[in-house]
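Sequence, structure tokens passed on for absentees:
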Amino acid sequence: MQHPFASPAELKDQLGKVSYLADDALSMATFLALGLNRPLLLEGENGVGKTEIAKALATLLGRDLIRLQCYEGIDTSQALYDWHYGRQLLAVRGSEDAGAADVFTRDYLLSRPLLQALEAGDRAVLLIDELDRADDEFEAFLLELLSDFAVTIPEVGRVAAASPPLVVLTSNRTRDLHNALRRRCLYHWVAHPDADREFEILRVRAPEVPEALARQVAAAVHRIRGLGLGNPPGVGETIDWAGALHMVGVATLSPEIAAATLSALVKDIDDQQLVAEKIDDVVITTS
């Protein structure tokens, strides 16, 4: 398949047009993943925009976004396929010869996200979100599926993607993923943006917020993340906080109003107390 973008710079520019501001390294990793038909593994803390890149790519490429949210104990019946037991039971009851009723055909199969992505092929972006929450067995199964983008269903046969979907995997690094999976993917660590890029994100995602206030918010959040919080705010919380400040009519950020609106930014009581104690250090006003 011909690459949809001429260069990483063009991809970066086009992502900006769908409100995702990627840095040069992420643009390069994504460009290579598209050209090589390889999964893209994104690691980073909560709230840095790992999930949003998959959504932006689906919008930009005009593809369906198929999302698999991982969790402890997930198995193939939730991720790959299951059988429509209600329809099978009705079919058996309605058949004159219940023993001859074949209810293990494609008509009775329920496609879950992984099978949906195989069937959609390059018409889809498959987001496998928070893979680190799944167990080792599921990770091993996933590695096998991603190796040739095919799976065998005993009652139906082999299902293979005519052309691979774009696969984006995310991990918050609550556990280490196996090296075999890492080697199968292209890799990028997604860090929190610096103050300048977070200001640019605010201008794109919250254009109603005045420029001066947006710049103050971005600078304050950057300092807050440097306090060593247990759950530092992500970009989404920054956008929420800027919007909340604008909603209550704030034109200039002050320590008092910052402390009063922390509920929109910091979502842990211990972190809130720490930020409140350091509020004069993170919200710096100029006379």
